[in-house]
Structure formats: C-alpha cells, structure tokens
Amino acid sequence: MIAKYLPVYFVLLGIAGLEVFLAYQSFSTTALLVILLALAVCGAALAVMYFMHLAQERRSLFLSLIPAVIFVLLMMNMIWSDSFRLLHMRPFPH
Amino acid sequence: MIVSESHQAMHAHGTALLEPAPYAIPSRKLTMWLFIISDAITFGALLFGYGYLRTASTDWPAPFKFNPSILNVMIMTLVLITSSLTMLGAVDSAKAGDKGKAGRFLWSTIFLGIVFAGLHIREWFGLIDDGVRLFQNPWGSPLFGATFFSITGLHLLHVVSGVVALAVIARGFSKGRLTAGHVETVGLYWHFVDLVWMFVVPLIYLLNLSR
Could you tell me if A43 and B80 are in contact, meaning their C-beta atoms sit under 8 angstroms apart? Predict the structure, then answer.
C-alpha cells in the first residue's frame, strides 16, 4: 500500500542527507543558504505534490493555493536591505 | 403552501449543497488547505524574521556540533519523514475500507510523532543546560535563543497538536463515527508539519554548525 510512495520517501531522505553533507563543505554562507534553500524547496515540492496529493487534485486548486503563497513569501524578501543597514550602521560597537 | 425550489432541494437531499463543491473536494479538505497555506506564511514570516536578525548580527552563535546536535536532528528528520509515510498508509487503507490497517498505520504515525517530540524536548533540555535562554546564551547574540526556541517551539506545538488530532481521528474512525475523508484531512496537516521541518533543519541548524 505504501510501496508506491517509497521512491519519494527515499528521495526526501536523500535530500536531507545531502543537505547535511553539503553543510560541512567549505561554501560561503550565502552560497550554502542558496543551495540548502533550493534543496528544501525541491523536497517541499515533492511532499506537496505526492504526499499531499496536490498533483492529483484539480489544476485550479493548485493555481489558487501555490502562486499566492510563493508571491507572499517572495514579497517578504524586502526586509534584507534593512538587515544589512543594521549590520553596517550599528549604533553601538561590538 | 408554496415552497421554494431551494427549500425543496434542501429537504430532498438533506444538505444545503445547491451547487458543485469548489475544486471538487469536500469543504473540510479545502479548509485544511487554506489553513495550511496560512500556516506556511506564518512560519515563513518567522523564518524571515530569524534570517533578518541573523544577517544583522555580528556575533550569531554557531553551536550545533555534529555529535550530538546534528545526529539528533538527522534522527528526528528520519522519524518525521517516516511518520509521513505511515500517514500515507493510513489514508490509503482508510480509503480502501480497511479499518484495522488504517488504525495500525495511524497509531504508528502517532508513535513516531511522540518519538519526535521526545527527541526535541531532550534537545531543548540539553541547550538549556548549556545556558541558552530566551534572551541570553554563553556564546553570542542574545536573540539566538529567542529565535531558536520560538521557531522550533511553534513547530513542536504543531507536532503535539497533530498527535492529539491524529489520536482523535484514529479513535473516531475505528468506531465508525469518522470517515476516510477525515483521515485524509488530518493527513494533509501532518504532511505540512513534516514539510515545515524540511525548512527548519537547514535554516536553523545547518547554517549554524560548529566546525
């Protein structure tokens, strides 16, 4: 009964293992962040489409849910300029 | 007495459905999906907030050693992803009408959820023993504890409430009060909890490794 889900299961475990392996390589923080996020998004997409069966639902459901979430999460990226401002213009020495 | 068509339809079918369900799914499933995307945005906001504070800090701690922290996190990830697999077994068994199998898969999922929560709480106690509090720690920026405990704590709250919900559904389904649709709906929630963990691990743990 769960045999058909085993490929996705092992891919998810593989992604998790790969993330741990890559975290111990000598990437810069920014590069590591991008790589880990990309892997996490791939894992999440597999979980949403096949574990949560969104791939089998009507396309209209997918289009109603996912683009809006991605849009909101992308819009949250506007905070970074302020965090760099805080980093470089700190009022107190450390 | 003149009775409107809509009233006739309601009394004829015993339901208030006068038109096809949106997206051709039951309302409980659509509600769960809407809750999931709102909760995803909530976790997204917390993780962005954590990222903001980490980027703005010059002394963010990197305390997670491979043994025991990352090993513990790897085991927790294995447990949670496996619990998603057993949840899938429960949903498929419930849809096939096999109550016994569905019950076994559901209780396996509950057990794995409890194991996850136990490992997580043990990790928390380890960090608290090391001196990490909400607004202080021995290593660096005082906000490390606040972000760590609030993000992992919110996730742990979701796991614990998911375990409770699964137990309620398991009991109701075994007694015939609930349907396979209910099992499927709580399954969606459980997979979401797993999904959030897939983002918490790289962002909170793997970006703060102690080398």
Answer: no
The number of C-beta contacts closer than 8 angstroms across A and B is 124
Q: Is residue B90 assigned to a domain? A: yes
pLDDT in tens, B36-86: 999 999 999 999 999 999 988 889 999 999 989 999 999 999 999 999 999
CA distance A14 to chain B (A): 10
Which structural domain range is residue B37 located in?
A: 25-208
The answer to whether the bond into B68 is cis (omega within 30° of 0) is yes
* B182 falls within a domain: yes
User: How many domains are contained in chain B?
Assistant: 1
SS3 call for B64: strand
CATH number at residue B138: 1.20.120.80
Write the ipTM: 0.89
By C-alpha distance, the chain B residue nearest A63 is B23
pTM (2 d.p.): 0.89
